[in-house]
TrEMBL record:
Residues 1-21 are annotated as: Disordered. One of its GO terms (molecular function) is carbohydrate binding. Coiled coil: none annotated. Pfam families: DUF5107 (PF17128). Keywords: Repeat, TPR repeat. This is DUF5107 domain-containing protein.
């Protein structure tokens, strides 16, 4: 049976931190884990795994209120791919001081391990504790202390962050819904449901403990609930507390590791060349062993490395001083990704550690990638596709770094003096058999009663050549085995920047380079020049037309998308009416449906269904269309053709249940829903249809309303939209305006013009803070609103936001200016119009005027002041002019790190370096992703202007001087490096070409 635990309200009680007499700061901040209640403890004593929900009081440095302005950061380079965050509100600040905050927490425990899951922080695993050894095998951060390194702003270290569909996960600082599931065999699973805020895909991860096992299982279900093919990556980001004795271990077939995008390689574990600017071979000449990059102590700079070409399934980390560590295991066929990241064991890295914790020290991240082996490295999810996989972690006692591991056991093999094999099991194994062999000859054996947390060892004298070791259970089943690994010589490939389009030899390669740039979300290179060159050479090239059809469709250019799809079909079907791949029919059907050409769309979907690849998606779209037209039996027949031949898609049982109820078969509908919820216990639409507690998140409720509307359930859709419209704005966004506009579109379709007008009026009157519309459905309802009332300034302003995000920027600029001309007075609108005037129409005077108008309406908005100063710099305003503009609002300037840095730079440039230095020595700074070094540069410049020698920066700057030069992000020419992983600015103002998705 299942007990649902809903995410608590975001408002929490905040209290000053207690100052217990004699307590150290670490003791004051230590997270106190509650004891299980009596009935839970009884189940635990019986051997079962248990779980319960109970808040934890954790010292918390609160993240700031998100910016009211949409952040269009298309060319922001983040983890090597696009750092765009729209439509997610962007958080830009963190509190300087901590408070005691109660966080919703779900506790899992069995005989061997204890875990804590935090639903309000993306369902992350915050604590992983080995009860047998008393060791936190995951880094236990005893404070919630975010730094501004997440995709959407705040990010915390520690535990396990589950990253999808991009790194660092868009929803990492947003709540998820949870449910606790107990099985009869003593297994417990805590399910967490994440609704991707970008493309509205669905992910469920289940944190599972079994009775009598030390293994943590992560059961994952990724579902593309959209009508478009999507890209994603999955990295489980595991933090481990480190010191001079900590060693990361990888399979013995690992000979090389790669940087992001495979832009650089080095040998492993002995780095044989400079890597991240560090000459490891030279360091090893001075200090033997200093080239071993599997030891935290040897890496002095922020460094990523990802395993290249391992055929093994495990890796992990081991603390030699503590005599404990952990193993990760997952099937290599789907989980090739094995990565280490560190801030570096040097003052620069230690400063970043201090930004993320109070007293818990440094950590490394040992990250496990599924369907990915690098970053960025995105793979595809077809419409409706669900990918299922499981990852495993478990603590290991004092066996040393593992040389082989399975979910049953790990083994470490010491070959220094004979052979010593040390084993750790994950469940009790009475009568386990330990063996050391050379060929068919047994060199040593023993029978032991092995239990988790207690190592067992076996030794054999002699040379290690040709030796293998085994651990078998009492029945002879192999638990783990090790043998020497042989790897072929040869260095792996390194990525290269693609040549300019005109230099590419073939049309096929031009098409594929464009697909790569879009798939990998390259932030600074667009696929369009490659696709344009391909069509110049071959106007009918099928692959290119399909790529452009998909791109235009996502941008709501439906007619253009249809034209590309039909051009592709003309070539595909010239001699073969049944092409091998029916994607062109599917894309044509999507475009036709959006254009209101329903009969033609249904015909296209029907033909796409001839191809097994596209049958599930096309069949669902066809069934929805038929259901919306009341052709219930026909829709049900379409679903019947899909269920036996294609995989699970939570959208299908939801639509089937709707159809069965319409046909007078409510019991059958209930059975369908019950079975579907057994697989997807937190799917939002299924829960609503089954009359279970509805999602609390307004955005998810909106998506449910769209599902119902698409199936023709307009009354239910309107009821949910009413709930969405009544929901307050949150850091996840504001949904009230778009909910009203959607209701208006539905009512207009029903011929209820007066009621539709009332909803449009309500949309104009509702709170639009953080209302950042996104996606095709919202595009269409905003277009419908303007068709009904061309003077609706609110609809024009919102549509402009969406169009700008969808790379339709001239149209966005026009919509915003139309709204301004209609008399709308809104600083967000005026700021957006100013941004477009600079970036799109290149009207510098208009850009400045719009920003002046916005500032006049919101004079105390520090974000607006920062952007205006950035615009001033780009418009060539002199340093004294910029400084004069900021001086009257110095109190606002000093509330933002980025604006303060600009201000102190201007002070220095204008001969007031002492004032700049005074600010830099008295104000606390928080470094941000991509902005590393800017505070230090301002510090150096001020001291140099005063004739003072260079000096280490004070701690309040939040940064330390780097010892080595990192890989270049931007060349002297101003061109961003193709392989850049981050940039020192967010590129809000840019007149360059945007990257492609």
């Amino acid at each position: 049976m299942s007990t649902t635990e809903r995410t608590a309200d975001a408002t929490r009680r905040h209290r000053p931190l207690p100052l217990a007499t004699g307590a150290t700061p670490r003791e004051r901040a230590r997270i106190l884990l509650p004891e299980a209640s009596a009935n839970v403890a009884a189940r635990l004593t019986s051997g079962a795994a248990v779980a319960w929900s109970e808040p934890l009081t954790i010292t918390t440095y609160e993240a700031g209120t998100p910016s009211a302005y949409p952040m269009y950061l298309d060319q922001r380079v983040y983890q090597g791919s696009s750092g765009r965050v729209y439509p997610l509100p962007f958080v830009e600040s963190v509190a300087d001081d901590g408070v005691a905050r109660d966080w919703q927490a779900v506790h899992l425990e069995n005989s061997y391990v204890r875990l804590v899951v935090l639903p309000e922080l993306g369902g992350r695993i915050h604590i992983g504790y080995d009860k047998s050894t008393g060791y936190d095998f995951f880094y236990r951060n005893n404070v919630i202390k975010p730094a501004l390194v997440g995709l959407g702003g705040p990010w915390i270290s520690g535990g396990v962050e589950l990253n999808w569909p991009q790194h660092h996960r868009p929803a990492t600082y947003l709540p998820v819904e949870t449910t606790i599931e107990h099985d009869d065999d003593g297994t417990v699973t805590v399910w967490c449901h994440d609704h991707d805020p970008f493309d509205r895909m669905s992910a469920q991860h289940g944190v599972r403990l079994r009775a009598h096992s030390s293994v943590l299982e992560l059961v994952v279900r990724l579902h593309n609930r959209t009508s478009e093919r999507q890209t994603f990556l999955w990295w489980a980001n595991v933090a481990a507390a480190v010191n001079d004795d900590y060693q990361s271990f990888f399979p013995e077939d690992v000979r090389y590791v790669a940087d992001h995008a495979r832009r650089a390689l080095t040998a492993f574990p002995h780095a044989d060349r400079p890597y991240y600017g560090v000459d490891y071979p030279a360091r090893a000449e001075v200090t033997p062993g200093a080239d071993r990059i599997d030891w935290y102590r040897n890496i002095p700079v922020p460094t990523s490395y990802m395993v290249v070409d391992s055929q093994q399934d495990f890796f992990g980390g081991y603390d030699h001083g503590a005599g404990a560590g952990f193993v990760h295991w997952a099937e290599r066929r789907i989980s090739p990704g094995k990565k280490q990241w560190t801030w570096g064991d040097a003052p620069f890295g230690h400063a970043w550690d201090a930004q993320l914790t109070d007293d818990d020290g440094p950590y490394v991240e040992l990250m496990a990638g599924v369907y990915t082996d690098n970053q960025p490295d995105f793979t595809w999810l077809l419409p409706g596709e669900t990918k299922l996989f499981t990852q495993y972690w478990y603590p290991i006692p004092a066996i040393g770094p593992a040389h082989q591991a399975t979910p049953d056991a790990a083994v470490s093999v010491d070959r220094e003096d004979g052979i010593t094999a040390s084993f750790a099991v994950t469940s009790p194994r009475p009568g386990a058999r330990l063996l050391i062999r050379r060929g068919d000859v047994t060199l040593a054996s023993a029978t032991v009663d092995a239990v988790p947390g207690v190592p067992v060892s076996l030794h054999a004298d002699g040379e290690p050549d040709g030796v293998s070791v085994e651990l078998r259970d009492a029945a002879g089943r192999l638990l783990v085995a090790w043998a020497p690994t042989e790897v072929a010589d040869g260095e792996p490939w390194v990525a290269s920047e693609p040549a300019a389009p005109e230099e590419i030899d073939s049309v096929e390669e031009l098409c594929l380079i464009g697909v790569h740039l879009a798939q990998y979300r390259h932030p600074t290179r667009s696929p369009l020049p490659y696709w344009s060159e391909a069509l110049r050479r071959d106007p009918g090239h099928v692959g290119t037309h399909l790529a452009l059809a998909d791109r235009d469709y996502r941008a709501a250019r439906y007619s253009a998308a249809l034209e590309h799809a039909e051009t592709a079909l003309a070539r595909l079907t010239r001699r073969n009416a049944n092409p091998q791949d029916a994607e062109a029919f599917y894309l044509a059907g999507l475009a036709l449906a959006r254009l209101g050409r329903t009969a033609e769309a249904e015909s296209a979907f029907g033909k796409a269904g001839w191809d097994g690849t596209w049958a599930p998606a096309a069949g669902l779209e066809l069934a929805r269309s038929l259901a919306a037209r009341g052709r219930n039996r026909a829709a049900l027949r379409v679903l019947d053709t899909l269920d036996g031949v294609v995989g699970h898609d939570a959208r299908r049982p939801a639509l089937r249940a709707v159809l069965l109820r319409r046909l007078g078969r409510p019991d059958d509908a209930d059975r369908v829903l019950a079975a579907a919820l057994g697989a997807d216990p937190l799917d939002a639409t299924l829960r609503v249809l089954a009359d279970r507690p509805a999602p609390t998140d307004a955005g998810i409720r909106y998506d449910v309303a769209l599902d119902l509307w698409g199936a023709g359930e307009v009354e239910q859709a309107l009821a949910h939209l009413a709930e969405v419209a009544a929901a307050p704005s949150t850091p996840a966004g504001s949904w009230a305006p778009i909910a009203h506009y959607t209701a208006a579109a539905i009512l207009a379709d029903l011929g209820q013009a007066d009621e539709a007008a009332e909803h449009r009026a309500a949309a104009r009157a509702s709170d639009a803070t953080w209302a950042f519309p996104n996606g095709l459905d919202q595009h269409d309802v905003l277009v419908a609103a303007l068709d009904a009332d061309p003077g609706d300034a609110r609809a024009a302003a919102l549509l402009g936001m969406l169009l700008y995000a969808h790379d339709r920027r001239p149209e966005a600029a026009e919509r915003w200016e139309t709204a301004v001309s209609a008399g709308a007075e809104d600083p967000v609108l005026l700021r957006n119009a100013g941004l477009a005037a600079y970036n799109v129409t290149h009207d510098d005077a208009l850009a400045w005027r719009r920003y002046e108008q916005a500032v006049a309406l919101a004079p105390d908005d520090a974000r607006l002041r920062y952007e205006q100063d950035q615009l001033a710099a780009r418009l060539g305003h002199t340093n004294p002019e910029r400084l004069a503009h900021l001086e009257p609002v110095r109190h606002l300037v000093l509330t933002r790190d980025d604006l303060t840095i600009e201000y102190v730079g201007l002070l220095t440039a204008c001969g007031r370096a002492q004032e700049a230095l005074d600010v830099l020595t008295t104000r606390r700074f928080h470094p941000w992703e991509g902005g590393e070094g800017r505070t230090l540069a301002a510090w150096d410049a001020a001291r140099d202007a005063l004739g003072l020698p260079l000096a280490d920066p004070p701690a309040n700057l939040g940064e330390a001087l780097p010892e080595f030069v990192p890989p270049v992000a931007r060349h002297a020419s101003g061109v961003t490096d193709y392989f850049a992983t981050s940039l020192p600015e967010l590129l809000l103002f840019t007149r360059g070409e945007t990257g492609g998705r």
